[in-house]
Amino acid sequence: MFQSSYNAVRKKNNSEKQPVIMISTVWHCSTNYKSKSKYRELSCLLPPSTWLSILLLFMTAISNINCYNYRTPIIRRNNFRAALYHQCCNNHKSCSPLCLTTSGNNGSGEKLQKQQRRNTNKNNNSKKVGKRRGQGGSGTERAEFLAAKTRNQAIIRCENGPDLLALFIAEGGARGVAGNNVYNTVNFSTMLNRLGRLCGKNYQRSRGGSENNERIQLLGDPRFAIFMAALGEALAGVTLTNGEKKPTTMSFNSQNLSNMAWGLAKLELFIPESVTTTPQPIFPPEGVILQNMAVLCNQIRSEVLAVAREKRQPNGASAAKKYVPTLFKLSDTVLTLLALRCVPIKRTFKVQELTNMLWAMAKSRKHFTKLFTEVGDEIVQRCNNDIDENEQLHNGNHWDELIIKPQELKDSIWAFSTAGLRPEVYFSLLEYTARKFGEKSKIVNENSSYMEQFKPQELSNTVWGITNQLLKRDFSGGTCIDAEMKDLENRSMLTIFRRVASIILSRPNDFKPQEISNTMWAFASVRFGCSMPGSVAAELDLWVGNDSQSRGGGYGDDDNYIYYTFDDERRDQNLIAQTMERVAQSTLPRLRSFRPQEINNLSWAYARLEHKSPAAEALFRGIGNEIIRRSSSFSSQDIAMTLWSFATTEYGTVEVYKVLASEMNADSADAFKSQEFSASIHALATAKMVPADLSVFDDTMSEQHGDGGNYQEYCPFTECFDTAASELIERTDMFTEQEMKDIIWAFSKSGVRHPTLFKSVAEYLVSSPDMFNESRGYSGCSTQVFGIIAWSFAKQAQLAKEIVESSTTQTPLGTTTGRQATYDASCVDVGGELIDQLFSSIAIHSLQYKNGEGLSRFSPQDLSNLAWAFATLGLHHKELLDAIAEQVTQRLSLHLEYLNGSGAEDSSLKKPSDLNKMANFKPQELTILVWAYASIGIRKPEMFEMIGDYIIALCSSITGEDGRKTFNSDSISKHFTRQYLSNLAWGAAVLQGYTPLFMNLLYTGLFGGVNGLGDPEVMRNIMRDNGIQKQGIRNMLYVQVTLDME
Prior knowledge:
By secondary structure, this protein is mainly α. The chain has a two-stranded antiparallel sheet with strand order 1-2. Strands 3-4 form a two-stranded antiparallel ribbon. Helix 25 (596-608) packs parallel to helix 27 (636-649), helix 33 (784-806) crosses helix 34 and helix 38 (878-899) packs parallel to helix 41.
């Protein structure tokens, strides 16, 4: 019709010879846009009276094109001039005058050409688009297209899962294989995507409902099982024609694959066997996947039919839904097939579809290394290849045309982090992210920068993902990265963290509870803005503690975390301090909207970052009130972490501790993990919240006690300690040595004797063939385990000796006193042979720690704990004690060299941070070492002389009359108490190892000088005590007699 009208007009116009206007158009576009025939150029001779009618008719055709081809951004409704220019320039080497005038003088034609190039991938199959969408061809194809479009609109209008499944059944999708040829690829993907969106956990929680209610109902609905079977058959390429299964022509494109993967991930349809953090480097063969899928689809249909038959039987209403396990297996197989089919066609994916695929696979624990590497590389290539164009778009205010948007960037980082994959492409993506976070004035629209387009959730998830990847970085084995990659990751993290902290500082109220708690958790996990204990600000670097097994999973032990030292430490300290102040002020009024997990993450962050201020104290008071108000809603992990946070900050009250401790009892014990038991008891002991009766569990030295289950008066701390001990006794094999150490340390630190518990632990450790071996993970545990286990057993014996010495009745130890009484007490509690075997094993495995590195990996506190424990029980293990003395002498020598400026180039402790950590002995540790060796009579002159020189250097902080550094009572009081000084003097007398200068220091700290005593009142003020204690006086009398001093 259009061609006939055109010929008639042309004949008429030729006779009239009116002025001509060259027009390039597509005569058949109203019926078959982009068909196989090429565009035709028509020269129309239009008189002024008739050409406008033709143009209006053509505009109507262009409008119809836009209605069907809604994904082609170039041809838009009410944009005839641009459409005309595009069609002409795309198909002709020369343009008509009208086409040339379309571009105008403002360069809009050049912009359209750039826009066309950016959409090349969208139109590379243009010959097939129209036919596939039913915009041309036969009337049957058009009818099918319109029916599928109407069906898709009906799917989108459904507001819940049951409505979607009812629609699927009503349309006849369950009557045959692969949806009975009713649903096409778009319908299948839209249906599954909508099911995930409407029945996923996040959506239900946002509506105030249960996180699992509609999801559980969906999984138990047989209609959903049938839908999944139909989807599997469609993916496998099987359909039903004339009652026979035949190959189908369905072809799922990038958008379909992405939508389906996203929907399955939201529904969390993956079997437990596939839940693993181990990367899966390759895909299974596609033939195997398709074969398994066909079997599972048939099995689901058979099982659904069997359940339906059972329900029709009497009392069959409660028939078990046997098809649910098969449904999970099928869903898992579908996810694997989607991942496999994504890689070959990755270039046809939009960036959003690529990031959605990564997110879905990470969420579903499908950690295919090939998928993440290939898709990640495609994302990075697009970002890098189009960076110049992207910058032009920034300047041109084209926000919608950005290569990768904030949400997509966040999803990519989150996916790699959740999957635990660290390929080279991850570091490129991280570098790109850091570059975006570091930009200051890249304009996206009139009022905002690229960074301001980030939502708080996207910022929070980004820093969470980066931190989670850092916590997985293993320097001792596993994932190895070179120095360049390490430096890139460090600097990228620093740039991103600084920017996010600045944003929180400027607008903390924009962050929701989960967003602020996750962000603060990330900052605290790497101690952002905090100095490493005892460190000197050094080059930009990461330091990892000894405990690689529990890194990132503990509750506050310094050995379990990453420390980060900064290139501008003061700036970062000020930034994080100001940020935490604003966060405390912002979150306090809205604590009621925080969930328990968010509360414990927030409190843990403040404890971990050691931030104390009036605002922080007020925040913890508010947290305490929330705990009291809704303690029953706190999970076992929430209780353990919150207890640790309050104990560390010292902001807790007795009432808060009682409420939290009361939640851990015999009735709730099954809900607690072994690590949560140990962390809770450890925190209570640290906060000095102990049982009212310290001898309630003592069944050897105190006859009236020993039955921890019968309390004379209810005490939540007693019940909490009893529950932890009972669990450790009953299922010892479920606890690691690290967790055992925390529990028995808590009992000994609190002064609570529990012989049954300690005997059970000793029997297990000695009798276990894997004691301290790699199979139990001990080689990755902290060195603290050795020292603390030994210290705890020795302390229990010491507590027994104190009971005996204060008892007025007969005890199992009889009249034995002194160190022999301590050893005898341990024999009564645990058994002499057993205690000897335990300490012998501790000594041997300490010396063989980390494949022979031995005590070189032990901290000063670990060494002093070992020495004290062996000396307290009178156990003389020569090899261990000699090795401890050698380590102490070597480290103190290195420290003195470093302090004197000679450096430590020849040492294995290369970095100042290593030197300070391993050689910085505290006064208490030095005193314990001297006391231990003196107690068992082992003379180590070199060690004792080095200890004396170190103490003199430590206390010499004033300048004497000769210009040299010296000491006085004030400088000594900054490091040592008079109890420590008297013990050092006693040890010097016993070991016969002292110098006049060292003795002068001791007497100056104790009395004000050797020759002349200071004023007692003045000395009490200087030393901040009430005078020398009785034990100190006895020690000094011994010193006077032994050294023949007046």
